[in-house]
Every structure is written in structure tokens, then in C-alpha cells.
Amino acid sequence: QVQLVESGGGLVHNGGSLRLACAASGRTFSNYYLGWFRQAPGKQREPVASIRWSGGSTYYADSVKGRFTISRDNAKNAVYLQMNSLKAEDTAVYYCAARELTASHYDFWGQGTQVTVSS
């Protein structure tokens, strides 16, 4: 059973930084994408960034390019999202998710962690 556990959310001022972590367990993720999504109040969940576990290729939403960095630690089976220059519009619940390379959608989700950016 895949388990994804997020941590690192919190309250930060505009322009500040946070680092989210996602601890992944339950299987080998070499054939997976691990991604971060977010959902703000009253809005649909949207993709933020993703990384292919094997090879490390990444994707970023335009809204976070240049400010957020996704990375992984194979030894710790963890994925991170370094968020810099945070803005009020980054306020959301952030979710870690996983999907197999051949899957069309993300099958596994964490419980989410709240990020609040005060202006």
C-alpha cells in the first residue's frame, strides 16, 4: 500500500520561504512520477510541480517557475518542494501525489499540508 505523508506547511510572510517534504513508502518508486498539487479555497486542485523518480526530469506550473524547486532523495524515499518568494496567491493546501509512468492520472495522494502566506 502506497503511503504519502506531507510535512513542512505553515504560516509565512509574503516573500518568505517554506520547504515541504513528502515521505513515500509502500513500494519502489523508480517507475513513478511524484508530484505536488495545491488547492486554494473555492478553487480547483491544480498541479504545481512533478518529478520523475528515475532520471529526475521535472515539470513546473508557469505560476511557480523560478520560485519553486522540486527534488527527491532516493535514500530517504522523499520528495521535497522548496518554495521561495512566496506570494499570497500561493496560499493553499498542498498535496503530494504519485502515479506510475504509464498511468493517465495520479492514483495515490497524501493528506495535505496547509501553506498560508500573509500579505
Give the C-alpha Rg.
Answer: 13 Å
Query: How much of the sequence is in beta strands?
Result: over 45%
Largest sheet: 7 strands, mixed
Give the overall pLDDT as a whole number. Answer: 96
Helix content: under 10%
Mass-distribution shape: globular
How would you describe this structure to a colleague?
Strand 7 and strand 8 form a beta hairpin. The protein contains no helices and 11 strands. It is an all-beta fold and 119 residues long. The strands form 2 sheets. Strands 2, 4, 5, 6, 9, 10 and 11 form a 7-stranded mixed β-sheet that branches. It has a 4-stranded antiparallel β-sheet with strand order 1-3-8-7, with no helix packed on it.
List keywords for this structure.
119 residues, mainly beta
Question: What is the gist of this entry?
Answer:
The protein has 119 residues and is an all-beta fold. It contains no helices and eleven strands.
Q: Any chance you could write out the topology, listing elements then pairs?
A:
Layout: E1 3-7, E2 10-13, E3 18-25, E4 32-39, E5 46-52, E6 58-60, E7 68-73, E8 78-83, E9 92-100, E10 108-109, E11 113-118
Parallel strand pairs: 2-11
Antiparallel strand pairs: 1-3, 3-8, 4-5, 4-9, 5-6, 7-8, 9-10, 9-11
